[in-house]
Amino acid sequence: MDILENNYPESDHVLVFDNASTHLKRADDALSARKTPKGIQEWGVETVLLGENGKPVHGRDGKILKTKVPMQDGRFADGRTQPLYFPSGHEHAGKFKGMAEILRERGYNVSKLKAQCTKFRCPEGATQCCCRRILCNEPDFVGVPSLLEEHCLARHFKVIILPKFHCELNFIEQCWGYAKRLYRLYPPTKKDEEMEANVHKALNSVPIECMRRFSNRSLRFLDAYRKGLNGKQAAWANRKYRGHRTLPDSILQELGDNQIT
């Protein structure tokens, strides 16, 4: 981001990331209805205990210690903040309000609803079958950004997360594949420093010409899906028009003529 801001200060930047769990991780205290209790109780989000150096603290048995932190505030539909814990002076001061009270404050009548459906397998299409399902569908619980998104948005960078299992849309994945192929050609070694040196050597050996071809290939897949093609059709069209960035408007007719379904 520093490079982009320094070299292209007048541009609007959009960063594209693959659908990795590390890219989707949310803050420890982020809103989540997955494990919240229905009633009032002492409850917090379990997270790893960090020391002053920012690293996990281990107990005498070598296991990482855990601690509990309060979940951050929610928001009503009108944008007002909704604390999820009772304030000081209340008879339940400091305790978690519970899903029932949180939803009641939002205007729902959940007196006859259970905390969640069995194993959280709600009826298909149901949105108000249990407290957890209702809360999961609340806008502030749905639209929780990941730590990556928060970091980028704080610097006014837009973020796009690619769909799962679609590495063809991210040309960087193809660069990784090229580098992995080169790495496997190097002599085997058990030394960490040699392995690391080989990784850097392989990554630096991916030609810029290949990167551009990979980029164009991803653009063709994007254009294919944009035109309504399925995976098989997109792969066929990509091979046929491998020298182009986009597919012709006649592609659907060509697919029909070649009986590609």
What do these coordinates show?
- This protein is mainly alpha-helical and 261 residues long.
- It folds into 3 domains: 2-19 and 145-161, no CATH class; 27-52 and 63-141, no CATH class; 167-257, no CATH class.
- The protein contains 11 helices and 6 strands.
- It has helices at residues 2-7, 21-24, 99-105, 131-136, 139-142, 147-154, 171-185, 192-204, 208-226, 231-240, 251-257; strands at residues 14-17, 45-48, 66-69, 74-75, 81-82, 158-161.
- The strands form 3 sheets. A two-stranded parallel sheet has the order 1-6. It has a two-stranded antiparallel sheet with strand order 2-3.
- A hairpin with a 5-residue loop joins strand 4 and strand 5.
- The chain is extended.
- The two termini are 42 Å apart.
- InterPro entries: RNaseH_sf.
